[in-house]
Write the structure tokens for this entry.
Amino acid sequence: MPSTTVTRDLRQLDKSTDNLYESLVVVAKRANQISNNIKEELHSKLSEFASSNDNLEEVFENREQIEISKHYERMPKPTLIAIDEFLNNKVYFRNPSKEQG
């Protein structure tokens, strides 16, 4: 999966919905879910390093915390992950307004 911007063929995005805008809404909602999950995961990992009595040495010497942060910075952006999942049919979605008709 690429970790930078990629040019996409728009005709690939609307194959499963027959509507480009509906596809983009699905991708955006999935990207928000991924972003929230990553944020929670990062906060839980970084909270292990939190202490009530931080001193200057601990702030500068905490290599593990820096490595965790660098790992998350190198990860692909949530939007790229969501688009990849959508194009590979790994996202479940439904449109209730279409189902009622």
